[in-house]
Amino acid sequence: MRCITTEPNLTGFVLCAKPLDRRIDLSKTDTPLPPAETGEDDLVPDGLNVFPTIKGYEAAHRVCVDQFQVPITQRAVREAWKSRRLASFKIGNACYFSEADIWRWLKSQRRSAVVR
What is the pLDDT along the chain (116 residues), one digit of tens a residue? Predict the structure, then answer.
């Protein structure tokens, strides 16, 4: 096996790869790349912050109740956070949420109406 370089990289390892003549040229493949999935679930209303600015699930609960006006319990938010259904960011020792992630989670809780 030939090595690409004999200089160690930042980790101290030498990068080695398969022989260069056996590489696959991806520009010559006939299979097109799949289109990016952008569905209705990915859309968030304008003005919602996508950056993690809400610290703690208690504050995420306040956003649900005060900003989005959804009557939901703090326990429901905490359980969604624990089960990782509500996306969060671990920054330091705290969990942060974004308004857009809370909005997506609230939309995922929607149930379809049963017509009888």
Answer: 455 555 555 555 555 554 555 555 555 556 555 555 555 556 778 889 999 999 999 999 999 999 999 999 999 999 999 999 999 999 999 999 999 999 999 999 888 877 77
Handedness of CA 45, 46, 49, 54 (dihedral sign): negative
HEC assignment per residue over the chain: CCECCCCCCCCCCCCECCCHHHCCCHHHCCCCCCCCCCCHHHCCCCCCCCCCCEECHHHHHHHHHHHCCCCCCHHHHHHHHHCCCCCCEEECCEEEECHHHHHHHHHHCCCCCCCC
Q: How far apart are CA 4 and CA 92, in angstroms?
A: 38
